[in-house]
Amino acid sequence: MIRTSQEAAARLTRRGRWSLPEVVFWAAAAASVVLLPDRYLLLNEIVVIGLFALSLDLILGYAGIVSLGHAAFFGLGAYVAGLLAKHGVADPFLGLGLAAALAAALGLATSFFVLRGTDLTKLMVTLGFALVLAEIANQAAWLTGGADGLQGVVMGPVLGFFEFDIFGRTAYVYSLAVTFALFVVARRIVVSPFGLSLKAIRDNPLRARAVGIPVNRRLVAVYTLSAAYAGVAGALLAQTTQFVSLDVLAFHRSADVLLVLVIGGVGYLYGGLVGAVLFKVLQDNLAAITPQYWHFWIGVLLVILVLVGRDRVAAAPQAVWGRLTGRRSAAPLRLDPKPVEDA
Q1: Its membrane topology, per UniProt (predicted)?
Q2: How many structural domains comprise the chain?
């Protein structure tokens, strides 16, 4: 049991230290800029989906808020950044900032409706908001381009020097840098007292309220933050592809990002990033082999993960190798920070 605030602070500090697997993960991401020059477009899409999944993990994995309409914030961010660029405001970071602000405002406004009722209620309310926003975008073709998409999006150079090139190098480096910066912020938040209070609310909201945690305010805050992150992800997609369509608000966006989290793991931030890598690599390769049936194999993987368990699936190759070599398999490396242990 933690006896003093100094001990608690020391334990949180230790918990927030970067582990070797985390350093290796981000070093590999940085190295991909040099090692995979012909895959920039795919890598950029992976990074955008990873940031989008991270935004959902903030509410699902840490606060227990289920959502089937997270594409509302993603799509809003995409349209805000696209409209700004189309009408002459071509600075990428200004577009990111305004997209995050408006997505956060939408998240704050809708949070009071979303956070009421059971999980099923939350699913339906979030889905409803996303469908309403998608239909508004469809009807307001004079503004969004409707089914034809928002065209004429031209982005200015990043920091005034780095032009967006046709190969996607600038786009990928830009998206990776923004995602890493936001990840560092999110990581600091989840290992803070605020993040621990979210986990307490997720595990037992009644007990959390009984010990003095302002449950509603905490949930509103993290939902607003998650919406801002999703808005930035949408803005990155619009800026790096220089095109926005109704697809950014479609239901499959919310479903796919939920699937990404299921594949990568919920509740440790890296789940969204790892899941995005696995999902897009599988999609890219399976679509090349069976263009019409790649969804089938993704579904098979999802069933295996749910029925067998992600840890067992991940440990299977290591166990087979241990049997072949006669060595005992070591504990698998984990990217998530170590939990706070009781004294």
Answers
A1: Multi-pass membrane protein
A2: 1
